[in-house]
Specification:
The complex is a heterodimer of chains A (475) and B (304). Chain A has 475 residues and is α+β, with helices and mostly antiparallel strands. Chain A is built from 16 helices and 20 strands. The chains are: A alpha+beta (475), B alpha+beta (304).
Chain lengths: 475, 304
């Protein structure tokens, strides 16, 4: 029996795709990397995932789990040589909200449920799923688990791992295992925590118990304009330094603000060198006091405009401006490379200056729109891949950016993950002993290395060989 | 960094070793094998960065010492051990049990940003980083929290710090039955306790919000000095929604339940917990085999 016929036997012909064009659609995710997909499968149930994993293992094929494909680090890019391409298991048809348990403030969902759909579904109960990546209309809960995703509101609420209580996971031998549980102090190791953020390398989550968070009774959404990027960055540092933790504190520089304004007409100030979108939530009086304090801190640093959303519609408009940033950029440049690093938030002003310098030095246009409150930078380098040399200059700028952030005491990724994109930078952050320990964790879950090979951890031989791309992958 | 390297040398790579902190939770995880060499982790607050809201602290530091340093900048780490003068940071993280403010502040594991531990092979290993948001590599930080020193021995950690709440009030009222509304209709209270006869609530935040929430609770609530004394027996963990039905079979005064969390403190020893499913036991064993192949770290604890 062939791989395809075995897969068709456990799914059906419609949900096993092996045509050249259909497979090619799954060679990429939202990164600029491209691999080679083998057969593409669309299971709908846990039993089907178990069966698909067993078939792939029997045929000696790796399994690459894939959610909505919005990942930016190449985590869902299939890596394998010709004739040994991985089976891509797409979870988009596992899109059922299985149970909403209001008493425990928990929902059980399949991995293909979209992030925003979940929050909309539980909103009538006064609840939401707190992690809110900018791609939340498109990204799936399974992908959020794989990448331990963040979002603007993770500043106050924490990233995905703080909002997942339990997972049902299919392991490499096809076995189903429940990691974690609804009880607060389960026995044994925190397998749940170890699995979240493993980027599809340890198993495939087929059901996720997410913690639901009450919607805040009071909200203030502020859009503050600044005459310089430095003043905006210093305001971020001052707010945190004053012991205020806003629900979100986002920065956009003039270039991205202009692009967004032309795209969504949200009334963002055209004359500001940078704006901060700050949201404060909680109970009424604390929110009022914190908003006043934030405005004072901003004005002390030269803020030129302060706009407070008067109602829910205006708040939505301001957030639409922020979350449409990447769509707005697509109107300006054919391609962009979105980075994701973290720096200590007291050093934002200095590091941003370096980002503009290194972009200029490489002749690359850069825009900045990012989660300033937790120091999570997202420089966007614009380019046109049809023009010779542009991608190379963007990659050079990205390489320098990563090194600047690590030297400042930062890290490789705040919320997008390592995937393929940053795998070979891991030795900048971790010693061989550190990497070996991480690999041991992976090995305990997946000793056969069935799931998502070549991701996250560089193999020993590659440790000193930065910028390498695995065989079978091209940019 | 000298203290950490000295600690690694002391741990070595051969014989059976365990680290003892304040010994306040020494019985958790089963008895240590006899003849195990006992060590102390290095102590001291290395670096508090109030403006970054994080602190680097060595594992052997007592919670009281850490709290004293943080307090100077109006900050705290909401780990809340019962005996802060004895409990050490490393001990709290290794056991992984949060205190009475978990309802608002979350589990121990969510306050830890970086760990440095000594592996079974005697090497220093780092995971995480001193930044508040980080997905660079697999999450060994969470794996280590609550692992009872059976996968590595904590030497130094970076914790998140938080501003101390401006106002803080404990309130109590008689309550022979659990109120029907989860969390009494309060928005994110800090703690909510019930012993079958009485409720206690901790409200924290802006002073006028705290007062407004206290008024919302109603006139039958009175001010309390603090939480009641914890029953000195065992500890149960259950889905928070299960507490009400569990309590029907247990006499008033024999327990104190953390509502909304699911931790129940007992006046008698807790029975044996539910055995995990075989696949979970197998994953635990596989982790132990890889991180400590000769079972030299805290042998006897957490029979994985």
């Amino acid at each position: 029996m062939t791989l395809v016929s075995d897969l068709v036997a456990v799914l059906n012909e419609e949900r096993v795709r092996n045509g050249g064009l259909e497979r090619a659609l799954y060679n990429r995710d939202a990164s600029i990397l491209e691999g080679r997909a083998g057969v593409v499968c669309f299971p709908e149930t846990t039993a089907e995932v178990q069966a698909v994993v067993k078939v792939a293992a029997n045929h000696g094929r790796a399994v690459v789990p894939r959610g909505a494909g919005t990942g930016l680090a190449g985590g869902a890019v299939p890596v394998g040589s010709e004739g040994h391409e991985p089976v891509v298991v797409v979870t988009t048809r596992m899109n059922q909200i299985l149970e909403v348990d209001a008493e425990n403030a928990v929902a059980w969902v399949q991995p293909g449920v979209l992030n925003l759909d979940l929050s909309r579904h539980v909103a009538p109960l006064g609840l939401h799923f707190a992690p809110d990546p900018s791609s939340q209309q498109a990204c799936s809960i399974g992908g959020n688990v794989a990448n331990n995703s963040g979002g603007p509101h993770c500043l106050a609420y924490g990233v995905t791992t703080a909002h997942v209580l339990a997972l049902d996971v299919v392991l490499a031998d096809g076995a189903l295992v429940r990691l974690g549980g609804l009880e607060p102090e389960g026995p044994g190791y925190d397998l749940r925590g170890a699995f979240i953020g493993s980027e599809g390398t340890m198993g495939l989550a087929v059901a996720v118990a997410v913690r639901l968070t009450p919607l805040p009774p009071a909200l203030r959404t502020l859009l503050v304009g600044f005459p310089t990027v430095e003043a905006a960055a210093e305001t971020v540092t001052a707010v945190i330094g004053a012991g205020i933790i806003p629900a979100a504190m986002e920065m956009m520089d003039a270039r991205i603000t202009k692009a967004v304004e032309e795209y969504v007409h949200a009334g963002f100030p055209a004359d500001a060198a940078a704006v901060l979108l700050i949201e404060i939530d909680g109970l009424e009086d604390g929110v009022t006091a914190a908003a006043a304090e934030v405005i004072q801190l901003a004005e002390d640093r030269g803020a030129t405009s302060v706009r407070m959303a008067a109602d829910a519609a205006e708040r939505e408009l301001l957030w639409k401006g922020r979350k449409s940033a990447f769509g707005a950029v697509a109107r300006i440049a054919p391609d962009y490379y979105l980075h994701d690093t973290v720096v200590p938030r007291t050093r934002l002003a200095e590091i941003l200056a370096r980002v503009y310098e290194l972009a200029d030095a490489n002749g690359v246009a850069v825009m900045n729109v990012f989660h300033a409150g937790d120091g999570n930078l997202h420089p966007l380098f614009l380019f046109d891949r049809r023009r010779p040399g542009e991608l190379e200059r963007v990659k050079a700028a990205g390489d320098q950016l990563i090194r600047v952030c690590i030297e400042a005491g930062g890290v490789l990724s705040g919320e997008h993950g390592i995937g393929l994109e940053k795998r070979d930078y891991m030795p900048l952050l971790f010693s061989p002993a550190d990497l070996l320990a991480q690999d041991s964790l992976r090995d305990a879950f997946d000793p056969t290395r069935l799931f998502n090979p070549e991701k996250v951890i560089p193999s020993g031989s590659r440790c000193g060989d930065l910028q390498s791309v695995p065989p079978g992958v091209w940019i | 960094m000298g203290a950490l390297e000295d600690f690694a040398v002391e741990v070595g790579s051969e014989d059976a070793v365990a680290v003892r902190g304040g010994g306040t939770q020494w019985d958790v995880g089963g008895p240590l094998h006899s003849g195990v060499r006992l060590l102390s982790a290095p102590a001291g607050v290395v670096d508090h960065r109030p403006e970054e809201m994080l602190v680097r602290v060595r594992a052997g530091t007592t919670m009281a010492e850490l709290a004293g340093v943080l307090d100077r900048s109006g900050q705290m780490v909401p780990l809340d051990p019962a005996d802060p003068a004895r409990a050490t940071v490393g001990g709290i993280l290794s056991v992984g049990r949060a205190g009475l403010r978990r309802l608002r502040h979350g589990p121990v594991r969510d306050h830890v940003l970086e760990i440095r531990y000594v592996s079974a092979g005697g090497e220093l290993v780092k995971a995480g980083a001193p930044v508040v948001k980080n997905v660079s590599g697999f999450d060994l930080v969470r794996l280590m929290v609550g692992s009872l020193g059976t996968l590595g021995l904590l030497g130094e950690v970076v914790l998140r710090t938080y501003p101390r709440p401006r106002a803080s009030r404990w309130l109590t009222r008689p309550a022979p039955n659990l109120p029907p509304e989860p969390l009494l209709g309060l928005y994110r209270p800090t703690s909510l306790l019930w012993d079958g006869a009485r409720l206690w609530v901790l409200l924290e935040g802006h002073p006028s919000d705290v007062d407004a929430q206290a008024r919302q609770l109603g006139p039958d609530w009175t001010e309390a000095e603090g939480p009641p004394a914890l029953p000195a027996g065992g500890r149960l963990s259950m889905a928070p929604g299960r507490v009400a039905s569990w309590a029907r079979d247990h006499p008033t005064g024999s327990f104190l339940a953390q509502l909304g969390v699911g931790v129940v403190h007992l006046s008698v020893p807790a029975g044996a917990g539910v055995e995990p499913e075989p696949a979970v036991i197998d994953l635990n064993r596989r982790l132990k085999d890889r991180f400590d192949p000769t079972s030299r770290l805290n042998p006897g604890r957490m029979a994985a």
